[in-house]
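Minutes, methods subgroup
Present: GH (chair), OT, SY

1. OT presented the first of two proteins processed in the latest run. Sequence and structure tokens recorded below as shown on screen.
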Amino acid sequence: MNLEDVKKFFEQNKDNEEVKAYLAGLKQISVQEVQQMLTENEELKKFFDSEKDKHFSKGLETWKRNNLQKLIDEEIKKRFPEADPKDVKLKELEAKIQQMEQEKLREALKNKALTLATEKKLPVQLIDFLIGQDEESTLQNLATFEEVWTQNLQALVEEKLKTNGVNPKDSNVKTQTFTREQLLAMTPEEIQKNWDLIKDQLKNI
């Protein structure tokens, strides 16, 4: 017989005098006797454990509902403290100042690159692509571009002369008459310096 059978028996015989007397006697049971019964009766122990779990779960849910969210909010504030509005404004101001400084630096680098490119007779349409993070990188980009541009320009002159039956050869003539021999003898820097005149002459060759 298990606990359910006992409960069922008492329910069915609740009006029986002997049962009444027995139940009345149970009301006098002591705490020690209850503890002993729980130790000796496995079914009774399971019943009490089940009831205890129910009450614990209910109490835990009530505690969660009343306290858990508050604890979570406090922990979030502790780990991620809310920024002071003054700090937010200060950071925004610092970001704007930094952006202005970067724009000012870029403008200065662009002006310097434009000046140098103009002096070297390099095409200024590509200046924006040559601006680096600082003056050093910008000058390096400009020097690399000048080297590539000059090499291609010299190759263009030689190819144009070859097309018109002139064999490129070295020459030390450095007058301003710009004969074919002189064009071939020019250094890349001289070609850059006199590009406008050379370009006009190439059209007429």
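2. SY then presented the second protein from the same run.
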Amino acid sequence: MGQPVGDEPRDDAELVEALRGGDERAFADLVDELGPALRRLALAHVPSEAVADEVVQDTWLGVIRGIDGFEGRSALRTWIFRILLNNARTRGKRERRTLPFSFFRRDDPEGRGGPTVDADRFQGRRGDQPGAWARPPVEWSSPEERLAGDAARRVMLEAIAELPARQREVLTLRDIQGYSAAEARNALELTETNQRVLLHRARAKVRAALERHFDDEGGAGR
């Protein structure tokens, strides 16, 4: 059975008209629909849930103030996400970032981006075994344990902070906030290929930083 007519989602034109007319029910429904996703995206940029809630609140105020000027050049929900991103980026620059962390997988889970290892890790044509490892990757038998130390966490956070903005956004959405590829693409307005490449490069850089840290740690212990 289909939904009752009153419960059918409104198209953008109808929703924009309702918001411009001060329809509180339409606004409340939109807040319920997008609120959790906006909060998760804000958390990719700011250090605490309290700050993320403030960013989301500022975003809804921006929607109310700006809806009369919305020209429909993008989908309404995309426009709202862009307001959130701008607010979160600005706020994030003022706040000390203390992002939560999770295990960064070596391979792209979609199997398309290849292993997140830089090409210079392999022997060149002049090596003894062209194409073989010049320096094999470190195997992490217990990655969560190894990443739990303050030093490793600091290395990881510094590596994330040094990523180009787009790489940092994709990585935090995918590997920290748990967004699917489609959710990240829509939130950041990326193509499938761009999202995959940005994630691949970001993971490679963070993993390389952690491997250097663990190599140094192992050498110091010998």
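Chair's summary of item 2: The chain has two domains: 5-94, 119-221.
Next meeting: continue with the remaining queue.
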